[in-house]
Amino acid sequence: RVKVEDAHTVIYGYAAGLDMTRRDLQLVARDKGRPWDLGKDIEEGSVCSEIMPMEGVVIENGAIALEVNGDTQQSSNVDKLIWNIREIIADLSLFYHLQPGDLIYTGTPEGVGAVLPGDRITGRVEGVAEVALQVGPAE
Known about the structure:
The structure is a single chain. The chain is of the alpha+beta class. It has a domain at about 10-80 and about 110-135: Fumarylacetoacetase-like, C-terminal domain (Fumarylacetoacetate hydrolase, domain 2, Alpha-Beta Complex), CATH 3.90.850. Helix content is about 15%, strand content about 25%.
């Protein structure tokens, strides 16, 4: 288990990532009182940029943004996350054995919305990286 004050010891680096959700599946599960797993566990539903090595660094401030087709949909700051980086790591370590290579997605600011096939999505984390993708056709 990792204590909040020791969280920096398990950080290798940072990346910009997009973790998509199938709201249609998530909402059906929610309405039936079931787990939302299927809405999050989707093939090719998560991407990330190259990892920028920043060993032992805890990012406490920095812009995070998401654009869809060039229009800003989300714009916030790391300091506005519900739980800070240290707290996220400590909490996850209560339930999982964190291992080198594990990726932790921190969550998103307000402004989530639907995307459509053909949409171009770009996510940015200030001082870290940018990741972009084009939404493919539904299968």
